[in-house]
Give the backbone structure.
Amino acid sequence: MRRVLEDPEAELDQGEDRRRRGGAVSMVAAAAMGAGEVGGERLVDALVTLVPGLDWTGVAADARQAEEAGEFDGWIRTGAVDPLGLLQAAGPEEMAAARHAAMVLAGVGGLYLMHGLGMPDNPALARLRAVLEESGLSLIVAQMVPMMIDPSGIVHALTMCLAPEITALAGWLESVLAEQAGTGQGLLRLPGAEQEGSEAFMQAWIGHLHQLTDRARR
């Protein structure tokens, strides 16, 4: 998105961009029309492409088994869970941990997505994006943003955060944020800026968007 904003003629139909878009199309088709619409190999490849940070070996084996048994078409739907049931069964400590994890992930996901909307960059934000992308879980973290701002999505976000793997991801990202805080330089610090703070950061962001708008008009 940022490349489109800053370079309207950027080539976005090659390499990883093309693979991710194809993976997203496969997942939508599988969810809407059944996993059999795309087939096991293509569906697992889509999962690997979109969330490379997880080990999909077991999922691939399950997909092959479901195809051989003729049960693959409803494979995604049979894996559905009852989010409200899981939340009702969770204890107070589990719910508190899930809420905290969801807030951390949504906050980091927001910073990650806002970079694509022209948000000013700095070494701290660049490092946060780098470690998130290296983890292969950037898609999961980014998805927390629309889920947490939609009342119907909060239930699913909290359910996801009950999983120990997601809680661990949130804890790891929180440690990255704490490490940056320990340097005495905030995430919204602009290199070389005369003024600091969130207001100066927002003004720089708005100014950058005005520059892009003026250039597009020209």
About this structure: Residues 92-115 form the longest helix (24 residues). The chain is about 70% helix and 0% strand. The mean pLDDT is 80.
